[in-house]
Amino acid sequence: MNAPILSADGLDADAIAAILAARQRRHAQARQADDRPTETLLVFELGGVAHGLPIDCVRAVAPLPKVTRLPGASAPLSGLVAWRGTVVNLFALATLLDRDAAGAATMIVLRHDAPRIALSVDAVAGVVTMPRQDATPTLSTLVIDGDERLTRIDPIVLIERLLPARLQEG
Questions:
Q1: CA–CA distance, 94 with 79 (Å, rounded to integer)
Q2: Which residues neighbour 41 within 8 Å (Cβ) at sequence distance 6 or greater?
Q3: I want to staple 73 with a disulfide (CB 3.0 to 4.6 A). Which of 38, 77, 116, 167 is the partner?
Q4: Could you give the dihedral angle defined by the CA atoms of residues 161, 123, 51 and 102, in that order, rounded to the nearest 10 degrees?
């Protein structure tokens, strides 16, 4: 069976076949991209750089309250804050990631009960859905989806770095 010869705007059959093949590849890539597992991330900024935490590990976002400093505390621990009638350990995420911070104004309270943990960040930008990375867990991983770029923070590795082993299960 012979296929009819296609022609449009002065294009020959080979040019049209190349265009159709390119369209088919793009549509196949779009379908494949849609089939990838995704996760929802809370996006926040540290020194103008976008970072994200899986939304399911976030308990709340709140303005940064007055911080009570602890003498002799380790570098990422900024101090303690009062939040909803509880005492929460506030950690400077910028210090842990070795990033510059423009000036922490917001805290992200994590879903970790004993002890309670909050992270000080410059600002919260919103929520995005990004492709899930299937890689060895590291503290931070660059995630790219089209024009969207951010550094995903792994909450398990984060807690391992912030707390002694006996307090990590909370």
A1: 14
A2: 52, 53, 54, 55, 127, 128, 129, 130, 143, 150, 152
A3: 77
A4: -80
Structure tokens at 55: 């939304």
Question: Cα(131)–Cα(124) distance, rounded to whole angstroms?
Answer: 20
Pairing outcome for strands 123-131 and 117-121: unpaired
The secondary structure element, H or E, covering residue 107 is strand 106-110
Alpha-helical segments (H) within the chain: 13-34, 93-97, 155-162
The pTM of the whole model exceeds 0.85:
no
Up-side HSE of residue 170: CA atoms within 13 Å toward CB?
22
Chain centroid to Cα 146, Å, comes to: 15
Quick check: 18 and 11 in contact, CB under 8 A? no
Give per-residue pLDDT as tens, 78-134: 999 999 999 999 999 988 888 877 788 899 999 887 889 999 999 999 999 988 877
Q: How far lies 90's CA from each of 6, 76, 99, 109, 153, in Å?
A: 67, 8, 17, 9, 17
∠ Cα 63 67 68 (to 5°): 160
